[in-house]
Amino acid sequence: MDPAQLIPVVDPIPIPGPWFDVLLVVTFVAHILFMNVVVGGAVISLVGHARNTEPLSRSLSKKLPTILALTINMGVAPLLFLQTVYGQFDYTSSVLMAGYWLAVIGLLLAAYYGLYIYNLKFDGLGGLRTPLLLLTLGMMLWIGFMFSNNVTLMLRPEKWFDYFKTGGAGFLNLDDPVLYPRYLHFMVASLAVGGLFVALRAHFKKDAERLKTGMLWFMRATVVNLAVGVWFLMALPGEIMMLFMGGDALATGVLALGILGAAALVWTGLTRRPVLAAVLTVVTVLLMAVARHIVRTAYLAPWFDSSQLPITGEYSTLLLFLFFLAVGLPCVVWMVRIYVKPANIEGDA
Ligand code: HEM
């Protein structure tokens, strides 16, 4: 049987697919950076309990619920853009993962509660603090693993035949060698960005000790991630890997710049410059997200090309979207400024 027969028919979209590709990559960067902070922040809090550096854990506990909320909010936009262009792949992989995928909703709610209880009952929890945070972190790690499974399973229509072998039971993409370094790449990045979050806050509060702690997490995790990134690259199917090794100028250039960015991040870690590190992190993550998009396009090339999607030419919806984006963004900036004003952060340490 030809895997192409398993791919649903595409629906026309209002404007050319590449518009949505750009929005998908940009909003994905926002989602993944917040995800990095909440997962990395939870790990650093946990280690804080083990090392008896409670004030750092306490301070992080106050931020984690909000950051998880932002992670979820920032996840909605790429989810919509992903479904708009790649729905016939992503919906299929979601259905094939069935229960595993639906369980993400319940686990997300439970993790949200976990972070709230950790924050609001920080003192009252006593010895239960560590197990609660460990459980909550475990749920977040599992959710991330489900996302990696879904977005890799969607790239392998030939794997979808497993549905007939499992007798209709949901399955994951566990036999894909790319899955593990890919997932690890995101999680190690979380340790780095979580550390950067700690360092940035310490920088503005002029807390040299905490700044050092944060930048150490940032730098060490980035060095480790350079190695994980190489593993990820090597695990890709040969012809896709070669695109990044001279086979395609854009792919090679983007990855080379990304690696250069990562090396610059290590340098900002060594010289303890959190603000510069934050700017370079956004740029590097954006480059890596473009590289990830090139990987997706290459995987799907035998089946699909987003620029060939049928369009209805209704540009009015794009204009409306851009209008609300232009009006909405300044409002968001204004709200964030109110939120971070020291006077509005009650009892923050
Ligand atoms: C604790 C919560 C979450 C964690 C840890 C998490 C983690 C991740 C990770 C690791 C990826 C990258 C997967 C890969 O490329 O291999 C990812 C992708 C994604 N996440 Fe999240 N996520 C969380 C919540 C959410 C939520 C609630 C949404 C939607 C409302 C969401 C939407 C997305 C989308 C759409 C992608 C894929 C975008 C693309 O492939 O272009 N995430 N997430």
TrEMBL record:
Annotated signal sequence range: none
Membrane-spanning residues: 22-47, 67-86, 98-120, 132-155, 183-204, 216-234, 240-268, 275-295, 315-336
The keyword Secreted is annotated on this UniProt entry: no
Keywords: Membrane, Transmembrane, Transmembrane helix
Keyword Membrane recorded: yes
Name of the featured protein: Uncharacterized protein
Upper classification of the organism: Bacteria, Pseudomonadati, Thermodesulfobacteriota, Desulfovibrionia, Desulfovibrionales
